[in-house]
């Protein structure tokens, strides 16, 4: 490879990083760990974000994911009003085959090397128990089980936040919070999606569900039978074409894209998946089709609220209060979008960027408590 190609390649990586502060490639031959940690913005505090494990087909695919996910975390922290920055980690590997305690300890060692700039925990493909191993190597782990001193499964408040998001959306569209009798198409019955499905059934809603994990599908079907609820199982892409009222993506990102957008018959999209829109222009396309989009990082902030609370000193009541605020924040974003003729994602982004600007000025106000980093005599 000649020098020109080399130079272009390195510029390209920095172009991809855009406004990200730092990207760390973590490689450990012995455990097979191949991970990327991305720190997007630490204006408000140390970066915080879960660690996803997925058999990414290429390193580029993993990099694309971690860059977008970590940027989303910056916005999520701002919108949820927690004093942390945006970061995320991805492990390239199959969560069903490649997990070992040593792999997570190796990840913990890399996190420790960042000296408090990055805190992590569970995400898609990882569980709180995985991070009990990582915790042996670093204090910068959140969301481990309560028996290990953590706040427990963060998918519980995340699912609760999705329910608040669905209620706010119901209110905006049909004038009532009541989810009973409406039909929801849930993609993914994992840690979050399964809990959302259970709660919707308990509230008298009807469901379409899909998951590649047959055990999760069987389990929700039998739960519905037990409580007299209605669940229809669909396969693969059929979930985009159902006649449900609301699509609830709780698996992977980029589900609203050029290939899926014309399939949707729903009135709204509200779910936990991070980065549901492949691009902001898909927000515009949803609006043109009369589909109300609940910005993902507003709706799915419950887990972040719980794990960040651990670092302040856990307080269950505060977690519940902050999670409940998802309802009013989302309604405010819907109103702002309508008043300012914006898409809902544009309105949410604008709200976060304004708040970041305001906070960054306050964080830089000089006082005796906030000493400058350089050495001056006072
Ligand atoms: N766990 C949490 O507290 C939070 C999760 N999220 C996001 O919510 C989403 C779900 O997260 P978790 O429930 O924690 O992950 P998970 O890994 O527990 O569940 C994901 C589910 O999606 C299913 N799935 C995978 N491919 C599929 C496909 N092609 N079709 C249908 N189902 C498929 C999996 O089998 C699994 O049941 C992710 O995008 C995650 O980033 C966001 C904020 C917090
Ligand atoms: O939910 C968590 O454990 C951490 C927060 C996070 O990574 C997320 O909200 O995507």
Automatic annotation (TrEMBL):
<keyword id="KW-0520">NAD</keyword>
<feature type="domain" description="Glutamate/phenylalanine/leucine/valine/L-tryptophan dehydrogenase C-terminal">
    <location>
        <begin position="155"/>
        <end position="362"/>
    </location>
</feature>
<dbReference type="InterPro" id="IPR036291">
    <property type="entry name" value="NAD(P)-bd_dom_sf"/>
</dbReference>
<dbReference type="InterPro" id="IPR033524">
    <property type="entry name" value="Glu/Leu/Phe/Val_DH_AS"/>
</dbReference>
<dbReference type="InterPro" id="IPR046346">
    <property type="entry name" value="Aminoacid_DH-like_N_sf"/>
</dbReference>
<comment type="similarity">
    <text>Belongs to the Glu/Leu/Phe/Val dehydrogenases family.</text>
</comment>
<dbReference type="InterPro" id="IPR016211">
    <property type="entry name" value="Glu/Phe/Leu/Val/Trp_DH_bac/arc"/>
</dbReference>
<dbReference type="InterPro" id="IPR006096">
    <property type="entry name" value="Glu/Leu/Phe/Val/Trp_DH_C"/>
</dbReference>
<protein>
    <submittedName>
        <fullName>Glu/Leu/Phe/Val dehydrogenase</fullName>
    </submittedName>
</protein>
<keyword id="KW-0560">Oxidoreductase</keyword>
<dbReference type="InterPro" id="IPR006097">
    <property type="entry name" value="Glu/Leu/Phe/Val/Trp_DH_dimer"/>
</dbReference>
<dbReference type="Pfam" id="PF00208">
    <property type="entry name" value="ELFV_dehydrog"/>
</dbReference>
<dbReference type="InterPro" id="IPR006095">
    <property type="entry name" value="Glu/Leu/Phe/Val/Trp_DH"/>
</dbReference>
<dbReference type="Pfam" id="PF02812">
    <property type="entry name" value="ELFV_dehydrog_N"/>
</dbReference>
């Amino acid at each position: 490879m000649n020098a020109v190609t080399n130079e272009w390649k390195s510029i390209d990586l920095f172009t991809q990083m855009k406004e990200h502060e730092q990207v760390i490639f973590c490689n450990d031959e012995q455990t097979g760990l191949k991970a990327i940690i991305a720190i997007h913005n630490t204006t408000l505090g140390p970066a915080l974000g879960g660690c996803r494990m997925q058999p990414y087909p290429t390193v580029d695919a993993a990099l694309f994911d971690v860059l977008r996910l970590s940027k989303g975390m910056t916005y999520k922290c701002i919108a949820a009003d927690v004093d942390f920055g945006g970061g995320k980690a991805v492990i390239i590997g199959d969560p069903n085959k490649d997990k070992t305690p040593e792999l997570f300890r190796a990840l913990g060692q890399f996190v420790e090397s960042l000296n408090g700039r990055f805190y992590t925990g569970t995400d898609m493909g990882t569980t709180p128990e995985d991070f009990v191993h990582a915790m042996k190597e670093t204090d910068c782990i959140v969301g481990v089980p309560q028996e290990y001193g953590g706040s427990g499964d963060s998918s519980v408040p995340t699912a609760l936040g999705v329910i608040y998001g669905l209620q706010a959306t119901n209110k905006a569209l049909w004038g009532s919070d009541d989810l009973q009798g409406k039909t929801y198409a849930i993609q993914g019955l994992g840690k979050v999606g399964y809990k959302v499905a259970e709660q919707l059934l308990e509230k008298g809603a009807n469901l379409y569900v899909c998951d590649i994990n047959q055990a999760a599908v069987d389990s929700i079907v039998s739960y519905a039978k037990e409580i007299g609820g209605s669940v229809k199982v669909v396969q693969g892409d059929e979930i985009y074409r159902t006649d449900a009222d609301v699509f609830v993506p709780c698996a992977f990102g980029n589900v609203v894209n050029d290939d899926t957008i014309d399939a949707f018959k729903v009135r709204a999209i509200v779910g936990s998946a991070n980065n549901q829109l492949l691009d902001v222009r898909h927000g515009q396309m949803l609006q043109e089709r009369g589909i109300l989009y609940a910005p993902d990082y507003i709706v799915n902030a419950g887990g972040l609220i719980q794990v960040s609370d651990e670092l302040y000193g856990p307080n269950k009541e505060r977690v519940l209060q902050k999670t409940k605020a998802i309802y009013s924040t989302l309604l405010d974003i819907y109103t702002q979008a309508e008043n300012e003729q914006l898409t809902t994602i544009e309105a949410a982004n604008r709200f976060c960027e304004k708040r970041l600007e305001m906070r960054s000025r306050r964080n830089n106000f000089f006082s005796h408590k906030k000493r400058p980093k350089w050495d001056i005599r006072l």
